[in-house]
Write a structure and sequence with these properties.
With 262 residues, the protein is α+β, with helices and mostly antiparallel strands. Helices cover 50% and strands 14% of the residues. It folds into two domains: 64 residues, no CATH class; 186 residues, no CATH class. The strands form two sheets. A five-stranded antiparallel β-sheet has the order 2-3-1-5-4. Strands 6-7 form a two-stranded antiparallel sheet.
Length: 262
Protein backbone atom coordinates (compact mmCIF):
# COMPACT_ATOMS: atom_id res chain seq x y z
CA UNK A 1 0.00 0.00 0.00
CA UNK A 2 1.12 3.56 -0.62
CA UNK A 3 1.89 5.99 2.18
CA UNK A 4 -1.04 7.18 4.25
CA UNK A 5 -0.17 10.73 3.27
CA UNK A 6 -1.06 9.83 -0.34
CA UNK A 7 -4.71 9.76 0.70
CA UNK A 8 -4.74 13.47 1.55
CA UNK A 9 -4.65 16.73 -0.37
CA UNK A 10 -1.11 18.12 -0.52
CA UNK A 11 -1.67 20.68 2.24
CA UNK A 12 -2.87 18.12 4.79
CA UNK A 13 -0.32 15.54 3.67
CA UNK A 14 2.50 17.98 4.36
CA UNK A 15 1.21 18.63 7.88
CA UNK A 16 0.99 14.90 8.65
CA UNK A 17 4.41 14.25 7.13
CA UNK A 18 5.92 17.04 9.21
CA UNK A 19 4.52 15.59 12.44
CA UNK A 20 5.17 11.92 11.80
CA UNK A 21 7.43 11.51 8.77
CA UNK A 22 6.87 8.97 6.01
CA UNK A 23 6.10 5.86 8.00
CA UNK A 24 6.96 2.45 6.62
CA UNK A 25 3.55 0.79 6.54
CA UNK A 26 5.16 -2.66 6.59
CA UNK A 27 6.84 -1.98 9.95
CA UNK A 28 4.52 -3.05 12.79
CA UNK A 29 6.40 -1.06 15.43
CA UNK A 30 6.13 2.14 13.40
CA UNK A 31 2.44 1.48 12.83
CA UNK A 32 1.86 1.05 16.57
CA UNK A 33 3.79 4.23 17.35
CA UNK A 34 1.82 6.26 14.86
CA UNK A 35 -1.49 4.80 16.09
CA UNK A 36 -0.64 5.72 19.71
CA UNK A 37 0.75 9.17 18.96
CA UNK A 38 -1.97 10.52 16.71
CA UNK A 39 -4.38 11.49 19.53
CA UNK A 40 -1.57 13.26 21.44
CA UNK A 41 -1.16 15.71 18.58
CA UNK A 42 -4.90 16.20 17.99
CA UNK A 43 -4.96 19.89 18.94
CA UNK A 44 -1.89 20.76 16.87
CA UNK A 45 -3.18 18.80 13.89
CA UNK A 46 -6.61 20.42 14.17
CA UNK A 47 -5.00 23.86 14.22
CA UNK A 48 -3.28 23.09 10.91
CA UNK A 49 -6.37 21.81 9.12
CA UNK A 50 -6.29 18.08 9.88
CA UNK A 51 -9.68 17.52 11.51
CA UNK A 52 -10.87 14.81 13.90
CA UNK A 53 -12.47 12.80 11.10
CA UNK A 54 -9.10 12.70 9.30
CA UNK A 55 -7.35 11.56 12.46
CA UNK A 56 -9.88 8.81 13.15
CA UNK A 57 -9.68 7.75 9.51
CA UNK A 58 -5.92 7.32 9.81
CA UNK A 59 -6.32 5.34 13.05
CA UNK A 60 -8.87 3.08 11.33
CA UNK A 61 -6.44 2.30 8.50
CA UNK A 62 -3.59 1.73 10.95
CA UNK A 63 -5.72 -0.69 12.95
CA UNK A 64 -6.51 -2.69 9.81
CA UNK A 65 -2.85 -2.71 8.79
CA UNK A 66 -1.69 -3.88 12.21
CA UNK A 67 -4.23 -6.71 12.10
CA UNK A 68 -3.62 -7.59 8.45
CA UNK A 69 -7.23 -6.76 7.63
CA UNK A 70 -7.06 -4.50 4.60
CA UNK A 71 -9.40 -6.80 2.70
CA UNK A 72 -12.95 -7.83 3.61
CA UNK A 73 -12.30 -11.27 5.09
CA UNK A 74 -9.34 -11.12 7.51
CA UNK A 75 -6.90 -13.88 6.72
CA UNK A 76 -8.95 -15.10 3.75
CA UNK A 77 -9.42 -14.27 0.10
CA UNK A 78 -13.02 -13.58 -0.85
CA UNK A 79 -13.56 -15.52 -4.08
CA UNK A 80 -14.92 -13.95 -7.23
CA UNK A 81 -18.55 -14.71 -8.00
CA UNK A 82 -19.30 -17.89 -9.99
CA UNK A 83 -20.29 -15.68 -12.92
CA UNK A 84 -16.94 -13.84 -12.85
CA UNK A 85 -14.98 -17.09 -12.66
CA UNK A 86 -16.97 -18.68 -15.48
CA UNK A 87 -16.49 -15.71 -17.81
CA UNK A 88 -12.90 -14.97 -16.85
CA UNK A 89 -13.68 -11.41 -15.78
CA UNK A 90 -16.40 -8.79 -15.77
CA UNK A 91 -17.30 -5.29 -14.68
CA UNK A 92 -15.64 -3.96 -11.54
CA UNK A 93 -16.70 -0.84 -9.63
CA UNK A 94 -14.32 1.84 -8.35
CA UNK A 95 -15.25 4.08 -5.44
CA UNK A 96 -13.43 7.16 -4.23
CA UNK A 97 -14.09 8.82 -0.89
CA UNK A 98 -12.52 11.14 1.64
CA UNK A 99 -10.66 9.30 4.36
CA UNK A 100 -13.25 10.19 7.00
CA UNK A 101 -15.82 8.03 5.16
CA UNK A 102 -13.62 4.97 4.62
CA UNK A 103 -14.75 3.21 7.79
CA UNK A 104 -18.48 3.44 7.04
CA UNK A 105 -17.99 2.42 3.39
CA UNK A 106 -15.78 -0.50 4.47
CA UNK A 107 -18.44 -1.75 6.90
CA UNK A 108 -21.23 -1.27 4.33
CA UNK A 109 -19.39 -3.29 1.69
CA UNK A 110 -18.58 -6.04 4.17
CA UNK A 111 -22.29 -6.33 4.91
CA UNK A 112 -23.61 -5.93 1.35
CA UNK A 113 -21.22 -7.69 -1.03
CA UNK A 114 -20.48 -11.39 -0.61
CA UNK A 115 -17.80 -11.80 -3.26
CA UNK A 116 -14.40 -10.29 -3.95
CA UNK A 117 -13.65 -6.65 -3.21
CA UNK A 118 -10.55 -4.89 -1.99
CA UNK A 119 -9.55 -1.83 -0.02
CA UNK A 120 -6.30 0.12 -0.40
CA UNK A 121 -4.77 -2.71 -2.39
CA UNK A 122 -3.12 -2.02 -5.74
CA UNK A 123 -3.77 0.94 -7.99
CA UNK A 124 -3.80 4.48 -6.66
CA UNK A 125 -5.37 4.64 -3.17
CA UNK A 126 -5.99 8.37 -3.43
CA UNK A 127 -8.04 7.81 -6.62
CA UNK A 128 -9.91 4.56 -6.01
CA UNK A 129 -9.47 3.12 -2.50
CA UNK A 130 -12.34 0.64 -3.02
CA UNK A 131 -12.71 -1.87 -5.87
CA UNK A 132 -15.69 -4.25 -6.10
CA UNK A 133 -15.57 -7.13 -8.58
CA UNK A 134 -19.08 -7.80 -9.86
CA UNK A 135 -19.65 -9.46 -13.28
CA UNK A 136 -22.17 -8.64 -15.98
CA UNK A 137 -23.16 -5.08 -16.86
CA UNK A 138 -26.68 -5.72 -15.55
CA UNK A 139 -25.53 -7.02 -12.17
CA UNK A 140 -22.96 -4.24 -11.89
CA UNK A 141 -25.56 -1.58 -12.68
CA UNK A 142 -27.98 -2.93 -10.07
CA UNK A 143 -25.29 -2.90 -7.38
CA UNK A 144 -24.04 0.54 -8.44
CA UNK A 145 -27.57 1.92 -7.98
CA UNK A 146 -27.74 0.34 -4.53
CA UNK A 147 -24.41 1.94 -3.60
CA UNK A 148 -25.57 5.31 -4.91
CA UNK A 149 -28.85 5.12 -2.99
CA UNK A 150 -27.43 3.94 0.34
CA UNK A 151 -23.94 5.48 0.61
CA UNK A 152 -23.70 7.78 -2.40
CA UNK A 153 -23.50 10.82 -0.11
CA UNK A 154 -20.20 9.50 1.29
CA UNK A 155 -18.48 9.23 -2.10
CA UNK A 156 -16.08 11.68 -3.68
CA UNK A 157 -15.64 12.52 -7.35
CA UNK A 158 -13.45 10.39 -9.60
CA UNK A 159 -9.83 11.44 -10.09
CA UNK A 160 -6.90 10.73 -12.36
CA UNK A 161 -7.07 7.94 -14.92
CA UNK A 162 -10.44 6.75 -13.62
CA UNK A 163 -11.94 9.60 -15.65
CA UNK A 164 -10.59 8.14 -18.90
CA UNK A 165 -10.26 4.43 -18.13
CA UNK A 166 -13.69 3.95 -16.51
CA UNK A 167 -17.24 4.77 -17.48
CA UNK A 168 -19.51 6.72 -15.14
CA UNK A 169 -22.43 4.48 -14.17
CA UNK A 170 -24.42 6.67 -11.79
CA UNK A 171 -23.61 9.51 -9.43
CA UNK A 172 -19.94 9.27 -8.44
CA UNK A 173 -19.65 5.57 -9.25
CA UNK A 174 -17.35 4.40 -12.05
CA UNK A 175 -16.78 1.00 -13.59
CA UNK A 176 -14.35 -0.84 -15.87
CA UNK A 177 -14.56 -4.18 -17.71
CA UNK A 178 -11.65 -6.39 -16.61
CA UNK A 179 -10.98 -9.65 -18.46
CA UNK A 180 -7.45 -10.43 -17.35
CA UNK A 181 -8.16 -14.13 -16.68
CA UNK A 182 -10.01 -14.60 -19.98
CA UNK A 183 -7.27 -12.83 -21.92
CA UNK A 184 -4.40 -14.75 -20.32
CA UNK A 185 -6.06 -18.15 -20.79
CA UNK A 186 -6.42 -17.51 -24.56
CA UNK A 187 -3.40 -15.31 -25.20
CA UNK A 188 -6.04 -12.75 -26.17
CA UNK A 189 -5.55 -9.40 -27.92
CA UNK A 190 -6.45 -7.06 -25.04
CA UNK A 191 -4.04 -5.11 -22.86
CA UNK A 192 -4.17 -6.10 -19.20
CA UNK A 193 -4.16 -2.49 -17.96
CA UNK A 194 -5.17 0.06 -20.59
CA UNK A 195 -8.86 0.72 -21.14
CA UNK A 196 -10.98 3.63 -22.30
CA UNK A 197 -14.44 4.49 -20.97
CA UNK A 198 -14.62 1.07 -19.37
CA UNK A 199 -13.54 -1.02 -22.37
CA UNK A 200 -10.10 -2.70 -22.43
CA UNK A 201 -8.08 -1.68 -25.47
CA UNK A 202 -6.26 -3.97 -27.85
CA UNK A 203 -2.66 -4.47 -26.80
CA UNK A 204 -1.33 -3.09 -30.09
CA UNK A 205 -3.53 0.01 -29.88
CA UNK A 206 -2.55 0.65 -26.24
CA UNK A 207 1.13 0.52 -27.23
CA UNK A 208 0.45 2.93 -30.09
CA UNK A 209 -1.17 5.41 -27.71
CA UNK A 210 1.59 5.07 -25.11
CA UNK A 211 4.24 5.63 -27.78
CA UNK A 212 2.69 8.88 -29.03
CA UNK A 213 2.87 11.74 -26.52
CA UNK A 214 0.11 13.71 -28.25
CA UNK A 215 -2.24 10.73 -28.28
CA UNK A 216 -1.34 9.84 -24.70
CA UNK A 217 -2.24 13.34 -23.53
CA UNK A 218 -5.59 13.07 -25.32
CA UNK A 219 -6.16 9.67 -23.77
CA UNK A 220 -5.56 11.03 -20.26
CA UNK A 221 -7.98 13.90 -20.94
CA UNK A 222 -10.66 11.42 -22.13
CA UNK A 223 -10.73 12.96 -25.62
CA UNK A 224 -13.29 10.68 -27.27
CA UNK A 225 -12.74 11.81 -30.84
CA UNK A 226 -8.99 11.19 -30.75
CA UNK A 227 -9.22 7.78 -29.05
CA UNK A 228 -12.45 6.69 -30.79
CA UNK A 229 -10.81 4.59 -33.57
CA UNK A 230 -8.91 2.45 -31.01
CA UNK A 231 -11.78 2.29 -28.55
CA UNK A 232 -14.37 1.39 -31.18
CA UNK A 233 -12.29 -1.53 -32.51
CA UNK A 234 -12.05 -2.89 -29.01
CA UNK A 235 -15.74 -2.47 -28.21
CA UNK A 236 -16.85 -4.22 -31.42
CA UNK A 237 -14.72 -7.23 -30.45
CA UNK A 238 -15.95 -7.22 -26.84
CA UNK A 239 -19.55 -7.21 -28.08
CA UNK A 240 -18.78 -10.11 -30.41
CA UNK A 241 -17.14 -12.16 -27.66
CA UNK A 242 -19.18 -11.28 -24.56
CA UNK A 243 -22.48 -9.94 -25.92
CA UNK A 244 -24.91 -8.70 -23.29
CA UNK A 245 -22.55 -9.72 -20.47
CA UNK A 246 -20.46 -6.75 -21.60
CA UNK A 247 -23.02 -4.22 -22.84
CA UNK A 248 -26.20 -5.12 -20.91
CA UNK A 249 -29.47 -6.79 -21.83
CA UNK A 250 -30.86 -3.43 -22.90
CA UNK A 251 -27.57 -2.42 -24.58
CA UNK A 252 -26.99 0.07 -21.76
CA UNK A 253 -23.26 0.48 -22.41
CA UNK A 254 -23.79 1.29 -26.09
CA UNK A 255 -26.55 3.77 -25.27
CA UNK A 256 -24.48 5.39 -22.55
CA UNK A 257 -21.47 6.06 -24.77
CA UNK A 258 -23.83 7.24 -27.56
CA UNK A 259 -21.89 5.70 -30.43
CA UNK A 260 -23.10 3.18 -32.98
CA UNK A 261 -21.13 -0.07 -32.96
CA UNK A 262 -21.61 -2.45 -35.83
Amino acid sequence: MAKITDLFPVSKAEVIRRFFGDYNLQDQQQLRNLHQNLPRFRDQLNAEGVDDDDIEGIRFILTLLMQGKTHPAPGEFNPHSPEWRRMGGGWKIHLNAKLKHHFSIFIWLRENWTFHWKYLTGGEPEEKPFTIYVGSWDEMEVFARKIDKEIGDKLDGAKGDTLSMDINVIGKIYSRFEIKEWNEARNGPFHYRWSFLGAPLFRADALTIVGDQSLLAKYHSADRESIKPFWKRSVIELIRIFGAYFYGNQQQYVKRVKIEFS
